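Please go through the sequence and fold tokens given here and tell me how the chain folds. Record follows.
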Amino acid sequence: MDLIPSDQLAEVTLEAAPGTITNEKAQAWRRCGVNRVSLGVQSLVTEEARRTGRKHTPETVVHDLKILDDAGITNVNLDLIAGLPGQTFDSWRKSLDCLTRLEPAHASVYLFEMDEESRLGREALLGGVRYGAGLLPNEEAMAEFYEIAVESLAAGGLHRYEISNFARPSCESRHNLKYWRLEPYLGFGVDAHSFDGSTRWSNPDSVEEYVERVLSGRSPALDASLTDPQEEHFFVGLRQAEGIKPSAREWLRFNGAIERGIRAGVLERDDSILRLTSRGFLVSNEIFQEFIS
């Protein structure tokens, strides 16, 4: 099969685990139109990666990037997680330094989220130390990890354009930008989500239920709900570093929340633009709650 012309596909992203990419896979992806790959690295410190169940090393990631480059896929994202069990400031800086040396087009930094139903989550809630619960960084450390990442990645040419996402110029994730700019999108398959500009809906997260609905001629769409476009403009749009341009009606409706945010130093206004401050990015979830009825 011939390559799909790049001018016909704006962005096709595929997610992959480090160490699972082969030349044959990468070439096949490219033939199918894939032009962006996101690698779930999590950590570029081997010991930390092992604790998350990953088997890769920094050398593995280097090898993967070479395979992708040979296949003509140069737009690559690397994911890192801040706050992993046992992570220290030294190990976090090592991951960041390694990532910037690899010079990816894009990087994502997510704060570690613990599943309270997992062994680790239950142990942490009980105040125990098994399964790495005693090695979890505290909230203050995680906030500092994030600030270190912003500074380190910017020095490496990757600038924050959204809370968790950093890119070189013109390498921002186009499909993610659609979400934050509230543009319509369609999701296909199990547990996929969609938005038509006013209504959101999702498909079943069970393969059996999804297949049963499709085979019986029913739509797989579930839980359709109308959105409040003004609220969404704030709690979705403000994730972007560029901020948002509220309408006159929105300035009036959310005046109290906006003024409180500005006085607290977590929001800033630049003429018609409203955006998070550096401090605001650290407490963004609390800020967004101010704009939800």
